[in-house]
């Protein structure tokens, strides 16, 4: 004798589905509102900073002398002069860091992806890179000061600042290059190996060209990372109001140290120069980030 199952009211299953759907819709709407609110809240300090720096420093950037002259002969009481010496100093120091950081970062990433493959040396390199990623800039500056200035007896120059910034730039370049190399399809490597091409030539002719745009993006982001650092400049690069193109001799100005030089002054000409130098630094970093995004947009490595 078979037992009859109790009949369920018509439409009860549909009502349950509708109630669950409505509950999910409410939760989704609430999560969307919270995320948008957090995003707008995060934009408030950013917009405030940009508005403050822009409104107080923009008028000096419209003067051609700001881009062509230095602060030699200027005092806190005299208006005029420019930031040419500091802009060139920042670019020269960043270029010196890139000359060392780019080969180390790119070749290190190639080793981790193409040769290391989880070996003991690769694990040690990854561990050291992770440590360098979180190291404060002042610690890097003090290390270079102890080694370069105190132990070896060299002077406090722009090149010494570049050496300390290398410790900050290498992890960024290496990690970003490592990620973009991992995006290169293995089929390309296997096809090259099937044709009898040596591994080093496959890396040089296939892997690196495929990931070239991503590597450039990593380099540009690494430069943007170090452009605003101040501690290495204060410890290793004394400020000068004159133009100096030689990073191996003499004091060299940079935009962060120019800001630090005038920030303690209460007179209006010095205050204006402080805000204008800050805005110039923001614009330089912004240009580098936009350049990195433009390069990444046309990257040859794309997910399929």
TrEMBL record:
All residue ranges annotated as the ABC transmembrane type-1 domain in the record: 87-292
Keyword Transport: yes
Source superkingdom: Bacteria
GO terms for cellular component: plasma membrane
GO MF term list: phosphate transmembrane transporter activity
Topology in the lipid bilayer: Multi-pass membrane protein
Subcellular location: Cell membrane
Segments passing through the bilayer: 29-51, 83-113, 125-148, 154-174, 206-227, 275-296
Keyword Membrane: yes
GO terms under biological process: phosphate ion transmembrane transport
Matching InterPro entries: MetI-like (IPR000515), MetI-like_sf (IPR035906), Phosphate_PstA (IPR005672), Phosphate_transprt_permease (IPR051408)
One Pfam family, short name: BPD_transp_1
Family according to the record: Belongs to the binding-protein-dependent transport system permease family. CysTW subfamily.
PANTHER family associated with the record: PHOSPHATE TRANSPORT SYSTEM PERMEASE PROTEIN PSTA (PTHR42922)
Function: Part of the binding-protein-dependent transport system for phosphate; probably responsible for the translocation of the substrate across the membrane.
Name the record gives this protein: Phosphate transport system permease protein PstA
């Amino acid at each position: 004798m078979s037992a009859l199952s109790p009949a369920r009211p018509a439409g009860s299953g549909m009502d349950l589905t509708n109630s669950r759907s409505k509950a999910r819709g409410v939760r989704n709407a609430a999560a969307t509102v919270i995320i948008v609110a957090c995003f707008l809240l995060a934009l408030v300090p950013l917009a405030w900073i940009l508005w403050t720096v822009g409104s107080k420093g923009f008028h000096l950037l419209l003067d051609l002398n700001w881009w062509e002259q230095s602060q030699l002969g200027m005092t806190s009481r005299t208006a005029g002069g420019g930031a040419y010496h500091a802009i060139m100093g920042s670019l020269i120091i960043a270029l010196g860091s890139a000359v060392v950081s780019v080969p180390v970062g790119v070749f290190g990433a190639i080793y981790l992806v193409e040769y290391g493959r989880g070996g003991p040396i690769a694990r040690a390199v990854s561990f050291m890179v992770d440590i360098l990623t979180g190291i404060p800039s002042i610690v890097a500056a003090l290390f270079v000061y102890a080694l370069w200035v105190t132990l070896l007896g060299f002077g406090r120059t722009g090149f010494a600042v570049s050496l300390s910034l290398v410790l900050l730039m290498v992890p960024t370049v290496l990690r970003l290059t490592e990620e973009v190399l991992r995006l290169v399809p293995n089929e390309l490597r296997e096809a090259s190996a099937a044709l009898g091409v040596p591994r080093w030539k496959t890396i040089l002719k296939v892997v690196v060209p495929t990931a070239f745009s991503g590597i450039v993006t990593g380099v540009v982001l690494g430069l943007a990372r170090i452009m605003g650092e101040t501690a290495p400049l204060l410890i290793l690069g004394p400020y000068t109001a004159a133009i100096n193109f030689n990073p191996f001799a003499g004091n060299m100005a940079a935009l962060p140290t120019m800001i630090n030089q005038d920030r303690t002054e209460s007179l209006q000409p010095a205050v204006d120069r402080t805000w204008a130098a800050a805005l110039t630094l923001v614009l330089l970093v912004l240009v580098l980030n936009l350049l990195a995004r433009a390069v990444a947009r046309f990257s040859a490595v794309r997910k399929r």
